[in-house]
Amino acid sequence: MKVGIVGLSQVGKTTIFSLLTGIEVDLFSQEHQRGTAKVHDKRVDILTKMYEPKKVTYATLEFFDTPALKINDKKERTAVFNLLQNVEAMLIVVRAFKNDSVPYPEVEKPIDQLKATLDEFLFRDLDVVMGRIERLENAKRKLEPKEEIELKLLKRIQEALENEQLLSQIEISEEEKKMLGGFSLATLKPIAIVVNLDEEQFTDKNYETKDEIVKLCEKNGFAYVELCGKLEMELNALSEEEKMELLKDLGVEETGIQRLSNALYRQFGLISFFTVGKDEVRAWTLRKGSTAVDAAGVIHTDLARGFIKAEIIKYEDLIKLGSEKAVKDAGLMKLVGKEHIIEDGDIITIRFNI
Ligand SMILES: Nc1nc2c(ncn2[C@@H]2O[C@H](COP(=O)(O)OP(=O)(O)OP(=O)(O)O)[C@@H](O)[C@H]2O)c(=O)[nH]1
Ligand SMILES: [Mg+2]
After folding, report:
1. Which InterPro entries does the record cross-reference, listed alphabetically (predicted)?
2. pLDDT classification of 78: cutoffs 50, 70, 90
């Protein structure tokens, strides 16, 4: 899954990108990068202990860093969103941390930053939709029936956007979504919010306008995560052991970045299945509702092409009973066909023939 990181200026976008992906970035450079982030999963760690494989591979998310959005600036807006044509989800960064040596964004209160950023999303979609409406209306020919339907849909969407409604919040059928697919509409994508705190706010679990932000996230179904960028940078510099130690002192189990990648995974409707063995323990990503043959295709197109059956055991059963053999002896291994729906935590072996 490809995720765009967006927000106003100097909120910590590049810092969070760098923490997620482990890519060191020069904060002053104007280059905007993409990178891959590991999705931390304790189950992978436990499977690794069990199988002692040569190689361990976590599921990943791909992130795109972007330049700052400026309030009501069409040129910047176009530049930022054009970088994000192919992303499937959005991560909005909001700054709560106080630090006078880092210039503040155009609006300071976190809730105002979030609203201003969402306005840019709405404006972007309006730019795109109105551009297309204009082209259809000015076509010097009779529109095809399909285009007439599209025009009607676009006008309905324009009205919603003008009423400040995110497109993810209005009724749009699957067929209509297909029609809109090429426009990469920003407010149609799943959105997650991360609030970047300073240490004091992190300890207090509070910051200015938090209630309003949380309410807005609930209303719109946004995932919501708080983290302290500075603390994360410090954690990042530690060894695995020192990190665990400090996390324990802080009374948390995971780093903010781990919490963030997990929250995104859930918010974006993703699940993990596993393949295990002495060579490799690996987590793979699927969209919720995918089938056994989809899972085979994620591993390798040949496995989908030559698919015969999939053997599935549940992660929980494996942990409870201690070995694959014990799970099989207990009659808990399932042999399933192409259309079987895969669930989070399924451990899969594909039987295939090509
Ligand atoms: N105190 C503090 N400083 C931070 C934190 N996160 C980022 N910074 C600093 O804030 C400045 C801006 O951070 P960036 O990550 O470059 O922010 P950005 O949103 O990418 O900035 P632009 O791309 O210029 O809009 C840098 O000097 C960071 O070191 C934080 O959690 N606490
Ligand atoms: Mg930046």
Report:
1. ATPase_YchF/OLA1, Beta-grasp_dom_sf, GTP-bd, P-loop_NTPase, TGS, TGS-like, TGS-like_dom_sf, YchF_C
2. very high
